[in-house]
Design goal:
- A hairpin with a 5-residue loop joins β8 and β9.
- The termini are close together.
- α3 packs across α10.
- Helix content is 38%, strand content 25%.
- It is α+β, with helices and mostly antiparallel strands.
- Strands 1, 2, 3, 4, 5, 6, 7, 8 and 9 form a 9-stranded antiparallel sheet that branches.
C-alpha cells in the first residue's frame, strides 16, 4: 500500500503544472478516492488539497525568483486564472507578494516533497475484529460541530452537557445491539479531515427501533466494519487510536475505508482520566 501511495506522490510531482485528478491518484494507489484522501490526511497531517497547493506555490516561488517567465505566465502555468489570484495565494504562503519577491530576492517558504514509509515503533499489536452488520439506526441528538484533532472537543462537550437526563434515559433504553449503550457517532466528515472543518455528531444509541418524536435519526445501510479496542488516557488515547488505525492498520491489512459514519463507544474511569474505547470504522476488502 505504501509503495502505491508513493507512486501517487510521484504523479503529483510530475503534474504540478497540470490539472491533478484525485480519482487518477486513487487509481495509481490502487484504492478508492475516499480512502486515498483519508489515508493521505492521516499519514501527512494535512489535507491533500493543501499539500498540492503548497507544492505548486513552492515550485512557482522558484520560478518567480528565477525571472525566466513573466509573473502572469507563472500564475497561469500553476493553475491561477489571474495575476491577482496568484498574488493572494503566493502571499498567504510566502508572506510576500510575487512582484516584491522578484524585486528583492526575498526568502520564501518551502513545502518539501512527501514520501511515506512504515516505521515500526514497538512490538504491541492492535486489537481488532471484522464484523458484518445489517442495516441499523443511530437514534439520539445531533449537532454540527468543528473537527478537533487534539484534546477535548469543546463543542461536543457543551452539546452533550446540554442533553437533559430524561432525554438521555429515553435514548439509552433504545439500545438493542452492538455497540451497546450510548455512543458518539461522527458522520458527513469533510474529506480533507482538516482541523476546524465540520461534521455531524450524534450522541445516541445503535438500534433497530424507530426514533421517538423529538429525537434525531441516522439510517446506516448494511456493511462491514473494523472494530478496534483501546485503553488509555482520555481523550488522547482515543484520538491516537484513530491515527493508528489509518497509519498502521490500513497499510498492513487488505481493507480500505468506505463512506459511512464512525462510531466510538467510550467507558470512562471513575476519575475521568482513563477510558476503554471501541472504535467502529466502515471498511471494505480490497481487490488488489
Amino acid at each position: 500500500m505504501l509503495e502505491r501511495l508513493n507512486q501517487a506522490m510521484e504523479h503529483i510531482e510530475s503534474h504540478l503544472d497540470q490539472q491533478i485528478d484525485v480519482a487518477e491518484l486513487a487509481r495509481v494507489a490502487l484504492t478508492s478516492e475516499y480512502h486515498f484522501r483519508r489515508m493521505f490526511s492521516a499519514l501527512s497531517g494535512m489535507p491533500l488539497s493543501d499539500y498540492i497547493r503548497r507544492r505548486r506555490l513552492t515550485v512557482a516561488g522558484a520560478e518567480v525568483l528565477a525571472a525566466d517567465r513573466t509573473l502572469l505566465d507563472v500564475a497561469i502555468r500553476y493553475g491561477y486564472g489571474s495575476g491577482e489570484a496568484f498574488a493572494r495565494a503566493f502571499r498567504a504562503m510566502h508572506g510576500v507578494g510575487p512582484g516584491e519577491a522578484r524585486r528583492t530576492g526575498a526568502v520564501l517558504h518551502s513545502q518539501p516533497r512527501m514520501s511515506f514509509r512504515l516505521v515500526v515503533e514497538g512490538g504491541s499489536s492492535m486489537r481488532y475484529r471484522i464484523q458484518d452488520k445489517d442495516e441499523f439506526r443511530v437514534v439520539g441528538r445531533k449537532a454540527r460541530v468543528p473537527l478537533v484533532h487534539e484534546g477535548v472537543n469543546p463543542a461536543i462537550a457543551d452539546f452533550v452537557r446540554g442533553i437533559g437526563p430524561e432525554t438521555l434515559e429515553r435514548v439509552t433504553a433504545l439500545s438493542d445491539q452492538q455497540p451497546e449503550g450510548v455512543v458518539g457517532v461522527s458522520d458527513r466528515i469533510d474529506p480533507s479531515r482538516a482541523e476546524g472543518t465540520e461534521l455531524d455528531y450524534y450522541h445516541g444509541v445503535v438500534t433497530r427501533a424507530e426514533a421517538p418524536a423529538g429525537l434525531d435519526v441516522l439510517r446506516v445501510p448494511a456493511g462491514t466494519w473494523a472494530v478496534f479496542e483501546n485503553t488509555g488516557p482520555f481523550p488522547h488515547a482515543l484520538q491516537y487510536l484513530w491515527r493508528d488505525v489509518f497509519t498502521q492498520w490500513f497499510p498492513s491489512n487488505p481493507y480500505r475505508s468506505r463512506p459511512g459514519p464512525e462510531i466510538l463507544r467510550v467507558r470512562l474511569s471513575e476519575d475521568g482520566k482513563r477510558a476503554d474505547a471501541e472504535l467502529w470504522v466502515p471498511v471494505e476488502r480490497t481487490t488488489a
